[in-house]
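Attaching the record inline, Q. Sequence:
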Amino acid sequence: MKKKTIKFLVPYPYDIAPGQRFRYEQYLDILTEKNFEYELLSFLDEDTNKILYKKGHTLQKVTGVLKGFLRRFWHIWKARNADFVFVYREATPVGFPYVEWILTKVFNRKLIYDFDDAIWIPATSSQNKLIAFLKSPDKVKKICKWAYKISVGNEYLQKNANQFANSTTKAVLNPTTIDLEKKHNILHQHNPNKKPIIGWTGSHSTLIYLEMITPILKELEQKYDFTFRVICNQNPNLDTENQLQSFEFVKWNKETEIQDLSELDIGIMPLTADAWAEGKCGFKALQYMALGTPAVISPIGVNKKIISQNENGFLADTETEWKEYLSLLLENPQKRQEMGILALKTIQNEYSVQSNRENFLGLFT
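Structure, as predicted:
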């Protein structure tokens, strides 16, 4: 039987970006098993990606991005006869979606459009403010209209994608999932005699969410002895910036990521209540829970679906609730263990690669 071909047009090189790793990369072996032949085509090369968020290197950054645009024309040619073209978020970071237009309108390819954030909402940060004016959030609506299938990470994204889509395309709810066999396969070892670790993980772009939790942790320090671990690619220096005595920074490393996460006794995911946060897919909470660690998270978007209150974790809305639930878990190792067991079961049943396998494969039919 002839193999069907898939061309993945994605922003970053393989095994670097969390979104890419957990949206499609962990399914690649399954695609191979099912007689698909695929190729990963990234906009950025590895050298440019390494310096993209570092200070300086302006010439190399500009050169690397321009090469990405040129590379995309070669990618269009390579994808012109593919059975499926899978675009994660966008084929190019700025401007009109010419790549998607050519592939769907000129070459008539079946485009599967996948996103896991509310990327149609303009979101300017200190890292992207120089090119924010070149971004085209409306491109999401255009690509949804051209897509053969749309794959999204939660119901909020699904509702909006369906409003953007053409009359024959319906967005598929394809949750962000965890591979419990090959990746998140170390269970947290509950030890009531060690100092508990409250932890947060994320990229530099989401460090802003720690601002709302830092004062709460400072207050808890007055009563409890714990460590607050931040696993990130950038050090927020909360010990010097915010005088947080419990702060510990662990630089994100894909080789040690799971081990570093497995040492957490409590995972947190604070969010602000806005449209951008509504589009998030609960990834931090899913990672904690997959390792048998209870999570305390903001009741925003899909988080309200992931957590069953006081069973597999806590939803904390107010400052009082954050202090109450964190205190309860700090004081009760047994409660942490019981919640962690139920948290893992939630991932196994609803948010694992294994439980979502057929749903993901259904995109390519």
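The longest strand covers residues 4-10. The chain has 16 helices and twelve strands.

More tomorrow.
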